[in-house]
Design goal:
The structure holds three protein chains of three kinds. Helices cover 33% and strands 14% of the residues of chain A. By secondary structure, chain A is an alpha/beta fold. In chain A, α1 packs across α4. The termini of chain A are far apart. Chain B has eight domains: 126 residues, Rossmann fold; 166 residues, FAD/NAD(P)-binding domain (3-Layer(bba) Sandwich), CATH 3.50.50.60; 73 residues, Alpha-Beta Plaits, CATH 3.30.70; 108 residues, Alpha-helical ferredoxin (Fumarate Reductase Iron-sulfur Protein, Chain B, domain 2, Orthogonal Bundle); 159 residues, FAD/NAD(P)-binding domain, CATH 3.50.50.60; 150 residues, FAD/NAD(P)-binding domain, CATH 3.50.50; 162 residues, 3-Layer(bba) Sandwich (FAD/NAD(P)-binding domain); 69 residues, Alpha-Beta Plaits (2-Layer Sandwich). Chain B is built from 34 helices and 51 strands. In chain B, α10 runs antiparallel to α11 and α28 packs parallel to α29. Chain C starts with a helix and ends with a helix. The chains are: A alpha/beta, B alpha/beta, C alpha+beta. Chains in contact: A-B, A-C, B-C. At the A-B interface, α1, β2, α2 and α3 of A face α3, α4, α5, α33 and α34 of B.
């Protein structure tokens, strides 16, 4: 697997498991109640984390829309992650369930156009579980490090209206 | 945009890793950045000053704060922005501390690059941030305090002192909370109740505090300042007329573990938690109807008389058993006892022998009870036709109501089918006669040998001055099932055969008898035939054939077994085809085997003939027992009476027939009553209905079966030790078939008590009415029901407290398995002067004073295993020290050892107290225990390792006390759910900020105090309660609150009114207007700002304040 | 409004009194999927169940959506990172509401035009029937 090409003949991304490459970036949409709180707690314990991942504070993962995820990827991020409360413990009752479904949807969109779906991931944790946050960030760093930088085209790859 | 970028060094926390000058240089040329400043502590006074001056001097409209996580100092900077009239959404945050410097110390270059990106994100975001509109809500000057412990009472009193109306909600029957259960308090060793009691009184007397006990908070909705709170008041079943004398307690037969005493004592179903309880009114714990009571056709309080039998109070048990049913001795023998089928104990081992217990009390007490004629209250006369169970019960109830009642009976004996249909060996004639006589003794006239339609008519009765007639004639002949050869000699019918037998005749049966049918009547006929054969000197040969299997059989299964013991042959799944004769006599019967097919409409599986399975059985007597039919003589001379399918038509609600004033019940009425107890029920309904009719009231349905059934949970059932029913003495099967003696002897008093003690008291209160009779002030009120009350309050204080860690989860320590392992809370009850032992320390196994006590700390606290909690419970070290000190002072000879992890005594005068108790001779050993083993004499062998000296020892202790940690109480977990509050470890309610806002919750207007927030001692709980009250008072004094800025808002120009937002909003805050310009509207008081609507909106019309798509995308895409 | 032959055939299937108005029955329904925002109002409004929210989404609906629309923005983002043309339909999880394709079944359609009148995105056209037949009132009689 280590020697797998960055893009296979079929035009799909492969290469999971390649050594980590510096300079990758991940945008992490974190809910204020749990994930961001867990991030704060792990930081206050001075837990070292890979600098790949940049946090964006959200009130609830229910606020994160597919537009945010795709735009972040389109505008420079190699991966996006959504981190929310544990299932059933959303501060707003069910926002994290919406986020779980939206992330699954975006993964399918990515897959259908040949982008590795693991570039978009969902994680859940409680405010009292900083280690889970740390593990999520490290996991994301590992996965994105194992993928080539996400290539972007300035011009549309498919003309509007093309079938 | 004119933004200022304020970079915080955070005293080196940020500047120690990041080069702030470089960052300043990086952002200075950026679009929209007007000024950049660096300060040591941007959140401090100097930083505040710097920001204010920059806004004033440079005309800033946005602030970009690069400091710690916005979750920490965010509110500080938002307040500064508000004060500077920029609006709180003028601040954008760059989280350079938790988001960068703290976590990338080891990679400063990469951290610097990341910091630039974070700052760029914040600046990009600020470009899109604009001021957000907010609404005012005017405040109600009232509060609800949830929890009536020391914290709740303190908060309530503080609020009331400021003129605020307070609703105090407590789930228990009394306020007082955990403190009321303590013995003494550390470090002063003063009695807990002595300091609590004056508080209880003053809270109760404070006019502005409305105490709601036995009350739950079901819902909290609405905006802060105007919370709508839904309270659910559970019934106490004791009214305020209660004078607190306690006469009810000794008479209550239901005992259960006393939860107030943590199970170290027993309490009754009617109880007051402690002497100083507020309110002082007693309370009855009732979970609805027990399964047995619900299942009974007349809803006899079976749990009630079983409990009274267990208490050895047989007379009272008889009163409870006979109140709804005059046929106790009868039903104790022949009832279908659905109560036993429903009995919860049946899920564990055998159901309680409820019928046999009833037989015991009715047989032993019944004959001794004198009966007085009932006083005549009403002049109307009622005629009852038929002296069976329905007629006699109806007569009794009407006589008790004060009517003149005459019963007409066609036979020469009363009792109906009970008398003529059931053989002596199963129901002795003198038993039924005695119970009928007791009813008649109420002054009821009985006319025997008078057949309706022949000797008199119903029309005649009404003409003779009877104002109502109750027809309960039963089904007095066998139903016909045509079969070829059924006119041959030797073919008889069960009802007729049994009637002849029971009226003193000797029906002739042949030497080979076949009984057809599967009901009780079939079995009675078959078993009687065995006895008749034996009497006639023949060897019994009786075969019962039934076309379905044993499962579908309507007869009692024990009847089949008893019949087999007597030599009865039973053929299941066999149906008759024809009776073959020899001359005019029966010679044999042709039968066919069946299999079970699909269930029919009645739900019973239908027999299907198996082809080719025909066989013949030699027989000289065939007895048909395939059902009963109406003898409709009485219809003669009863104008307007309609029959339907062989029964009398009746109104199902009123039991009145088609003839006004004529009622019907029992087997004769088309109501589907088929058993003795259902006939009794029919009699009761008939009496109630006749009373309604005669008193000129509307004929309303007279029966209400809608009660909640109380059932023990699976968990409770699993905890019950498996036993068995006390067996009843039976006469030997072969011996008894020769005579008509009763087959079983009934319970002795000892057996009855032993059997009754197996009862699980499903409904807790057994509804035996003992308390009703004992109460001198008539305070017991069964009509109380659950009520819902809605109140509106300005603020909410949560003071729902803690509970002890369930030490059973630490299985190796033996709690719950070994008698002499208890918890500190249980010890507190034993040491309390007002506790169950009046302060005497008793070892549970032998009630002796323990000589050697071990207290074990950190059980379920400071324990990272899945069964425990990580947190320190804060009070246990001194709780154990206090109890050790009390034991040492009372019993100087008793050795006390405390096995601790670390001794923590940080409170005021706590360390001094610890030293003092140590000097009193209490041994402190630093160490943990791996396992406790119970010795045969119930003492406990403990392996203890002293972790200071490394010495291992094995010691014997008389008593081990576990210092089980503190967890959030069930009430705390429930209110967190209801109020939508976050919880932290062990379920404690999370405060808004661990240091800066320790009594605020994340919901504005809701505050937390006491151990609901985390483990703490009494003075800390009180201090926190006062702080929470001060916060609430402060908020309510402002007159109004603003709606939050972070709410969704819809742009009507962009909105297409598709309604998706309305569908997805979990709070129900969005509605779509109608009309030509339809669009969505968000209620900012309900919206909680999750942003789901924003994410789903197909046009982007609805946007979340502070987190609009523009703001989020700007930050996420730099 | 006059009816087409198709309109006449459809109307003959409708039990008497079930339609509020027959005006427009028999219209030809033309859906412009690229304009659709997926709100599902047509499915909610449709009296015959001809329009339904499906469990799948056609990714081209993002790529073809007009610039400036929300779907267009998603399409632009996707276009920048895509490696190849979309593989086809993607399945849509339950809680994703508007990113799904509306399934339209011409066989069930009455041609009443309710969907077109109610479409907030103007993505549905109801083309009037050709004037080759008798007026509706006559047909009902």
């Amino acid at each position: 697997m280590a020697a797998a090409p960055a893009a296979s003949a079929a035009g799909r991304e492969t290469g999971v498991g390649q050594p980590a490459v510096a300079g990758r970036s991940v945008v992490a949409f974190c809910c204020r109640e749990c994930a961001y709180a867990a991030a704060d707690a792990s930081a206050n314990a001075r837990t070292s984390l890979p600098p790949t991942v940049r946090l964006v504070l959200m009130p609830c993962t229910g606020r994160v829309s597919p537009l945010h995820l795709l735009s972040a990827l389109a505008e420079g991020a190699d991966g996006v992650m959504v981190a929310g409360c544990l299932e059933g413990q959303c501060h707003y009752r069910e926002g994290n369930f919406n986020a779980i479904d939206r992330v699954a949807f975006v993964q399918r969109l990515l897959k259908s156009v040949g982008v590795a779906p693991e570039r978009c991931r969902m994680f859940t944790m409680s405010a009292g579980e900083p280690p889970k946050f740390v593990a999520a960030v490290k996991e994301m760093d590992r996965v994105i490090g194992g993928l080539p930088p996400l290539e972007r085209s300035a011009v549309p790859a498919v003309a509007r209206g093309a079938a | 945009m004119r933004a200022g970028v304020f970079l915080c060094q955070c005293g080196g926390n940020i500047s120690g890793v990041l080069d702030l000058d470089d960052l300043a240089a990086h952002v200075r040329p950026m679009d929209g950045v007007t000024t950049v400043a660096i300060n040591q502590f941007m959140c401090g006074t100097e930083g505040h000053q710097m920001i204010s001056e920059a806004v004033e001097d440079r005309g800033l409209d946005h602030l970009i704060v690069a400091s710690c996580s916005p979750r920490f100092q965010g509110p500080t900077f938002e307040r500064i922005a508000r004060e500077l009239r920029l609006g709180e959404n003028a601040v954008a945050f760059a989280n350079l501390r938790e988001g960068c410097s703290f976590i990338h110390k080891d990679q400063p270059e990469l951290a610097q690059e990341k910091a630039k990106k974070i700052l760029a994100g914040a600046i990009a975001r600020a470009q899109h941030q604009s001021d957000l509109p907010r609404q005012r809500t005017f405040l109600h000057r009232s509060a609800v305090v949830v929890g009536g412990g020391i914290a709740g009472m303190t908060a309530a009193e503080e609020l009331a002192a400021s003129g605020i109306e307070v609703h105090m909600v407590e789930r228990q029957p009394s306020i007082g909370g955990y403190m009321a259960r303590l013995s003494k308090t550390f470090p002063t060793e003063d009695c807990a109740m002595c300091s609590l009691a004056p508080r209880l009184t003053s809270t109760a007397l404070e006019g502005r505090v409305h105490v709601h006990t036995l009350t739950e908070v079901d819902e909290i909705s609405g905006p802060p300042g105007e919370f709508s709170v839904k309270l659910r008041h559970r019934p106490r079943y004791v009214s305020e007329a209660c004078v607190g004398c306690g006469e009810c307690v000794p008479v209550c037969p239901v005992k259960l573990p006393n939860d107030f005493d943590f199970g170290v004592s027993e309490r009754k179903a009617i109880d007051r938690q402690f002497a100083n309880a507020v309110p002082s009114t007693f309370a009855i714990e009732k979970k609805g109807w027990s399964p047995c009571k619900s299942a009974c056709a007349v809803h006899t309080s079976a749990q009630g008389y079983v409990a009274l039998v267990a208490a050895g109070r047989f007379e009272e048990a008889y009163r409870v058993a006979s109140e709804p049913n005059p046929f106790g001795s009868v039903c104790g023998r022949i009832c279908t006892h659905l109560c036993e089928t429903a009995c919860a104990r049946g899920k564990v081992d055998d159901p309680i022998a409820i019928a046999s217990l009833k037989r015991f009390v009715a047989d032993t007490v019944g004959p001794t009870v004198p009966v007085q004629p009932a006083p005549i209250v009403h002049e109307e006369r009622v005629a009852i036709v038929g002296a069976g169970p329905a007629g006699i019960t109806c007569a009794r109830d009407l006589a008790d109501l004060g009517y003149r009642v005459t019963v007409f009976e066609a036979q020469q004996v009363a009792g109906g089918m009970l008398r003529t249909g059931i053989p002596d060996y199963r129901l002795p004639h003198d038993v039924i006669q005695r119970e009928v006589d007791q009813v008649l003794a109420k002054g009821i006239e009985l006319k025997l040998g008078r057949r309706a339609g022949t000797d008199f008519t119903v029309d005649g009765l009404l003409e003779d001055g009877y104002q109502a007639v109750y027809l309960a004639t039963g089904l007095q002949k066998s139903a016909e099932a045509p079969l070829p050869g059924d006119d041959l000699g030797g073919v008889t019918r069960a009802v007729e055969l049994l009637r002849e037998l029971n009226l003193g005749g000797t029906p002739i049966v042949g030497s080979k008898v076949v009984v057809i049918g599967g009901g009780d009547v079939a079995l009675d006929a078959a078993r009687s035939a065995i006895r008749l054969q034996k009497q006639a000197g023949k060897e019994p040969d009786v075969t019962l054939v039934y076309r379905r299997s044993k499962v579908e059989m309507p007869a009692n299964v024990t009847e089949v077994e008893e019949g087999r013991e007597e030599g009865l042959t039973v053929e299941f799944l066999v149906q008759p085809l024809a009776i073959e004769g020899k001359g005019s006599k029966v010679a044999s019967i042709k039968l066919q085997r069946c299999a079970l097919g699909e269930p029919d409409e009645s739900g019973r599986r239908q027999p299907v003939a198996v082809a080719g399975s025909e066989f013949e059985l030699v027989a000289d007597t065939i007895v048909f027992a395939v059902g009963q039919a109406l003898v409709d003589d009485f219809a003669q001379g009863c104008d307007g009476l309609e029959l339907e399918a062989g029964q009398i038509c009746v109104d199902r609600d009123t039991m009145m027939t088609t003839r006004e004033g004529v009622f019907a019940g029992g087997d004769a009425a088309a109501m589907g009553f088929y058993t003795a107890i259902e006939a009794v029920a029919a009699g009761r309904r008939g009496a109630a209905s006749i009373h309604n009719f005669l008193r000129g009231q509307r004929l309303l349905p007279v029966w209400d079966d809608e009660r909640e059934v109380a059932r023990p949970t699976e968990e409770e059932l699993a905890a019950i030790a498996i036993g068995q029913r006390v067996p009843m003495q039976m006469v030997d099967g072969l011996q008894r078939r020769g005579d008509w003696r009763e087959v079983s002897d009934g319970y002795t008093a000892e057996q009855a008590v032993a059997e009754a003690e197996r009862c699980l008291n499903c409904a807790v209160c057994s509804e035996c009415d003992s308390c009703v009779r004992a109460c001198p002030s008539g305070a017991i009120d069964w009509d109380q029901a659950e009520t819902i009350e809605g109140i509106t309050v300005g603020a909410v204080i949560i003071a729902t407290g803690h509970q002890e860690f369930d030490a059973r989860r630490k299985r190796s320590l033996g709690y719950g398995r070994y008698d002499n392992v208890m918890t500190q809370s249980q010890l507190a009850r034993l040491l309390a002067a007002a506790g169950p032992t009046a302060g005497e320390l008793e070892r549970p196994s032998d009630k002796g004073v323990p000589k050697n006590v071990l207290m074990l700390q950190c059980v379920g606290s400071r324990d990272c295993q899945s069964s425990g909690n990580e947190h320190c419970s804060a009070v246990c070290c001194l709780f154990a020290t206090l109890h050790s000190s009390l034991i040492k002072q009372h019993y100087p000879d008793t050795e006390v050892t405390i096995g601790y992890t670390d001794l923590r005594a940080p409170g005021k005068a706590h360390e001094e107290y610890y030293k003092l108790v140590q000097s009193r001779g209490v041994r402190y050993v630093r160490g943990r225990v791996s396992e406790i083993i119970e010795e045969p004499d119930k003492s406990l062998r403990v392996r203890l390792e002293d972790t200071l000296t490394g010495r291992k020892s094995e010691e014997l202790f008389d008593l081990v006390v576990l210092s089980a940690g503190l967890e959030a109480s069930e009430g705390t977990k429930d209110i967190a759910h209801v109020a939508g509050l976050q919880t932290a470890s062990a379920g404690f309610i999370k405060e808004y900020h661990p240091k800066l806002a320790p009594v605020d919750t994340q919901r504005t207007g809701m505050f937390v105090a006491g151990t609901a927030q985390g483990p703490k001692n009494i003075p800390d709980s009180i201090a926190q309660a006062k702080a929470a009250a001060a916060r609430a008072i402060g908020m309510l004094s402002t007159g109004f609150v603003l709606t939050p800025a972070q709410v969704a808002a819809s742009d009507p120009d962009v909105c297409i009114a598709c309604g998706v937002c309305e569908t997805v909003c979990p709070q129900g805050a969005v509605a779509v207007t109608t009309g030509a310009d339809a669009h969505s509207v968000v209620d900012p008081n309900i919206c909680r700002g999750c942003g789901i609507c924003n994410a789903e909106c197909p046009t982007g019309a609805i946007q979340l304040g502070g987190f609009s798509d523009e703001e989020v995308l700007a930050e996420a895409t730099v | 409004m006059p009816l087409t032959n198709r309109g006449r055939a459809i109307l003959s299937r409708v039990p008497g009194g079930t339609l509020q108005s027959t005006v427009g029955v028999g219209c030809e329904i033309v859906r412009h999927e690229e304009l659709c925002v997926g709100c599902g109002k047509c499915a909610t409004n449709c009296p015959s169940g001809a329009s339904e929210r499906s469990e799948t989404f056609d990714v081209y609906q993002l790529l073809d959506a007009p610039a400036g629309s929300r779907r267009g923005a998603l399409g632009d983002a996707l276009r920048r990172i895509m490696k190849h043309a979309p593989d086809g339909l993607v399945e849509v999880p339950a809680r994703v509401t508007v990113l799904r394709t509306i399934a339209y079944d011409g066989e069930k359609c009455l041609g009443c035009g309710t969907c077109a009148r109610g479409c907030p995105a103007d993505a549905i056209e109801a083309r009037p029937p050709k004037a080759d037949a008798a007026p509706a009132a006559e047909m009902r009689a």
